[in-house]
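ok so I'm stuck.
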Amino acid sequence: MPGELRLDLGTLYAFMLVLARVGGAFVFVPLPGTKSGPDFARVLIAVFLTIALFPSWPAIQANQVDMAKFTGWLLSEAALGLGVGLLAGFVAEVFQMGAQIVTIQAGYSFASTIDPTSGADSTVLVTMAQLASGVLFFATGLDRQVLLIFAHSLQSHPPGTFALSQSMVTQVMKAGSIIFSGGFRLVLPIVALLAMIDISLALLARLNAQLQLISLAFPLKMLASLALFAWLLSIFPRLFTQTAAPLFDLARRFFG
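replied:
not stuck anymore, here's the structure
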């Protein structure tokens, strides 16, 4: 019939493979509210993005694919999506690591709030860093870069041709070190200022033992850290993009 819609088995295989590649990234990509929201919404986002990539779907001959081969392809595509999502998630973890470093030093370890992603108690600075990283992920255009990486990967390495190697796994694991180095570099001015406050109060207490400066330490450190955080907000987008650049370059090299 002219108006009949037909979906052959090869197209269904291609849809499932692309969905496994795209859907695997949603496990770690820092999308605000996706973990606390309904699972059905995340599934719909993955399905719609897969349909948007329809021009790049591979042509698969269903009669040449058995169940064992197709299962292997699915696992390989899911691992690829998880790797790209993990690299994107490292960027958000940099901000959370930096906030965690400052939290104890600045005296905010007892100031807790509700984590919007998990519903558990979390410190104020860590929650603010998590929300800020989610906003910056879209504001700096990294979401479009993730989609471009998947679109180019479907052309350079169509589903069923990508092979996960040990060197790729090693490079992703080594890239995780940017969480600690980038997080410390992000809050290094604040840590230095807090150290100077501690040294200054210690010297004053050494000069005059009658001065009770312990009660002033926490208010000074909390106010100083907040003031410096506000001053550093203007450079957070630039630091966010600089941190993401080597990670996304690594993801592109996987398909070079």
